[in-house]
Amino acid sequence: MNERPRLTVLSGPSGVGKSTVVAHMRKVHPEVWLSVSATTRKPRPGERHGVQYFFVDDEEFEKLVANGELLEWAEFAGNRYGTPRQAVLDRLSAGEPVLLEIDLQGARLVRASMPEAQLVFLAPPSWDELVRRLTGRGTEAPEVIERRLEAAKVELASESEFDTTLVNTSVEDVARELLALMKVL
Ligand code: ADP
Ligand code: 5GP
């Protein structure tokens, strides 16, 4: 059996709690490395460049794509997001576990280029709870929420493409389960 840490991809519909779970996990285990993506989305209040994302403009994003610096990238609800390649490869070759928090399209691209990656789907306890969380976060305008809920329907229908599903009822439980899957615990 191969016990080497490998690449883990966490995906799931917008508002399901991916960032919350990852933030909790990192609070408990700060040594777990999470890839920081580049995005053309504007920062939400409290988000900082280089922490949640590298916030770039369209031109800078184009350059990253043209120079082959992204392991994968996708357009999601009107913005582009991509995973810087080198940092991920460096961690993996150092034998450290790597976590990517990316959308469904990105997860599919990773699966195609790195078949050994493990794909984890974070599911909401129910559709109504997902709507409550996405709306309750209060960071998006109503039309952006609509767009993200449309994308969520597609994401939820793709759950069977993933190796494992975790239902986000308790942030602490899901973070623990994720760490176990990453063989950190
Ligand atoms: P995502 O990163 O998947 O878009 P967030 O982490 O921003 O989602 O979470 C969306 C909202 O749901 C936030 O307001 C967060 O506090 C809340 N939330 C996350 N996980 C839970 C949970 N297990 N129970 C209740 N609320 C949660
Ligand atoms: P948000 O704008 O809510 O931070 O993220 C929107 C969506 O983009 C989420 O599903 C998130 O997982 C995804 N995302 C974040 N970074 C990346 C990335 O580097 N690549 C891809 N494909 N999706 C990403």
TrEMBL record:
The keyword Nucleus does not apply. It is found in: Cytoplasm. It is an enzyme of class 2 (transferase). ATP binds at G12, P13, S14, G15, V16, G17, K18, S19. CDD domains: GMPK (cd00071). GO terms for cellular component: cytosol. GO terms for molecular function: ATP binding; GMP kinase activity. SMART domains: GuKc. Its main location: cytoplasm. Its EC number is 2.7.4.8. Residues 5-183 form the Guanylate kinase-like domain. Keywords: ATP-binding, Cytoplasm, Kinase, Nucleotide-binding, Transferase. The keyword Transferase applies. PANTHER family: GUANYLATE KINASE, GUANYLATE KINASE-RELATED. Essential for recycling GMP and indirectly, cGMP. NCBIfam families: guanyl_kin. Belongs to the guanylate kinase family. This is Guanylate kinase. It comes from Streptomyces beijiangensis.
